[in-house]
Write a structure and sequence with these properties.
- By secondary structure, this protein is of the alpha/beta class.
- 31% of the residues lie in helices and 16% in strands.
- It is built from 11 helices and 14 strands.
- It has an 8-stranded parallel beta sheet with strand order 3-14-13-12-11-10-5-4. Strands 1-2 form a two-stranded antiparallel ribbon. A two-stranded parallel sheet has the order 6-9.
- It is globular, with a radius of gyration of 19 Å.
- The relative contact order is 0.15.
Length: 358
C-alpha cells in the first residue's frame, strides 16, 4: 500500500504526496467577498500541500451567508484571486477552488432581506453568524424549477471564473448541510417533483451540477466533497449507505477527478458521527481517487491508506496552525496548536504568523 508521502495522480494534476489541505473557512475577505492581500501570504505559506482545496467560496450573492468569506461571481473577485494562485504556483503548489452555495444557512441580512432558498421549506437549527452577531436562522423557501436552471448557470459561471483566476480545478461543495446536501438528504428534502422523493431524484441536483461543471472545466479538473455518515447542520438521512453509494456511482460515471469525504469518526468541529462510516460502500461505488477527511493524525492517515480505504487524506486544523505540515509529518516533528479565537478574525494574527519548523 502507498505511503502518505508518495505521489498521486488526480485528474490533470500529479500531487507529490498525499497530505492534502482541507477547505478551511477563515473570514479574511472583504464585506463584498473580495479576497484580501493577506490571503496571498496565507495560501503561499501552505503551498507544500499535495493539493490545496481553498476555503468555501460563494458562487453567487444568493448563496453567500458567512461574514468576510470570499466569492467567485464578480470580475473584482476573479482579479483578487489571481495573485493568490500565481503565488501558490510560483511556490510549486497546486490549488483547487471550492464552489459553495449555503442554501438555508444564508441569513436574510446577507441577501438584502430576501428569504434563503433550499430544497424545501425547512429551517436550520441554531443561529447564523452575521455581521451583527448571531441571529436565528429563518425558514427557507423551495427553489423553483426555473431557479434550479439559473443555479446551474451560476455553478457554470463560477467554475469558468475559477479557471480564469488561475486555479488548477474546482471542488463542488456538496457536504456539511449546505444547499446540495439539503437536496440529498431525506430529512431536508420533501419535494414532490423530479428533485425529491427517491434516491435517484434526490441526487439529481448533485449530478446536474457536476455535469455542468465538468462541461465547463473538464472532468480532470473537477472534484466533489460529500459528508455521508451523520447529522450536519441539521440535515441527515435515514439510509446513508444507499444514498451516498448511488451518489458516488453517479459521480463515477461522470468521471470526476476525485471524491473527498468529510466523515467524522472522532471528536471534531461538528461533533461525532452518529452511525458507522459510509466510506466502505462509497469506495466500492467510486473508482477514482478517494480522499478522507476529519481529525486524522499521521498514524490514522497512514492506516487508512494501508487498509485501502483512501488514496489521500485532507488535513484541516493541523494545516491551519502548521503551514509546513507535510514536512513536519514526514520528519515526525511536533505540531503547533491552533488558536480558536483567531479562526475567523480579520487580521494577520492566527493566520499568517504560525511558525515554520525550519
Amino acid at each position: 500500500m502507498p505511503s502518505l508521502f508518495e505521489p498521486l495522480n488526480i485528474g490533470a494534476l500529479t500531487a507529490p504526496h498525499r497530505v492534502f489541505m482541507a477547505p478551511l473557512t477563515r473570514g479574511r475577505s472583504s464585506r463584498t467577498h473580495v479576497p484580501s492581500e493577506l490571503m496571498i501570504e496565507y495560501y503561499t505559506q501552505r503551498a507544500s500541500a499535495g493539493l490545496i482545496i481553498t476555503e468555501a467560496t460563494g458562487i453567487s450573492q444568493q448563496g453567500m451567508g458567512w461574514p468576510y468569506a470570499p466569492g467567485i461571481w464578480s470580475d473584482e473577485q476573479v482579479e483578487a484571486w489571481k495573485p493568490v494562485t500565481d503565488a501558490v504556483h510560483a511556490a510549486g503548489g497546486r490549488i483547487d477552488l471550492q464552489l459553495w452555495h449555503m442554501g438555508r444557512i444564508v441569513h436574510p441580512s446577507f441577501i438584502g432581506g430576501a428569504t434563503p432558498v433550499s430544497a424545501s421549506a425547512t429551517t436550520a437549527p441554531g443561529s447564523a453568524h452575521t455581521y451583527d452577531g448571531k441571529q436565528p436562522y429563518v425558514q427557507a423557501r423551495p427553489l423553483t424549477l426555473d431557479e434550479i436552471k439559473r443555479l446551474l448557470d451560476d455553478y457554470e459561471k463560477a467554475a469558468a471564473n475559477a479557471l480564469a483566476a488561475g486555479f488548477d480545478g474546482v471542488q463542488i461543495h456538496a457536504a456539511n448541510g449546505y444547499l446540495i446536501d439539503q437536496f440529498l438528504r431525506d430529512n431536508s428534502n420533501f419535494r414532490q417533483d423530479q428533485y425529491g422523493g427517491s434516491v435517484d431524484n434526490r441526487i439529481r441536483l448533485l449530478l446536474e451540477v457536476a455535469e455542468r461543471v465538468v462541461h465547463t472545466v473538464g472532468a480532470e479538473r473537477t472534484g466533489v466533497r460529500l459528508s455521508p455518515n451523520g447529522d450536519s447542520q441539521g440535515v441527515n438521512d435515514s439510509d446513508p449507505n444507499t444514498l451516498f453509494s448511488a451518489a458516488a456511482a453517479g459521480l463515477d460515471k461522470i468521471g470526476i477527478a476525485y471524491l473527498e469525504l468529510r466523515e467524522p469518526g472522532f471528536d471534531g468541529t461538528f461533533g461525532k458521527a452518529d452511525r458507522p462510516p459510509v466510506h466502505p460502500v462509497i469506495r466500492k461505488a467510486f473508482s477514482g481517487p478517494l480522499i478522507l477527511n476529519s481529525d486524522y493524525t499521521l498514524e490514522r492517515a497512514q492506516a487508512a491508506l494501508d487498509a485501502g480505504e483512501a488514496d489521500a487524506i485532507t488535513f484541516g486544523r493541523p494545516f491551519l496552525a502548521n503551514p509546513d505540515l507535510p514536512y513536519r509529518l514526514s520528519k515526525g516533528l511536533a505540531l503547533n496548536e491552533d488558536v480558536m479565537a483567531t479562526w475567523y478574525s480579520q487580521g494577520p494574527e492566527g493566520y499568517i504568523d504560525y511558525p515554520f519548523a525550519d
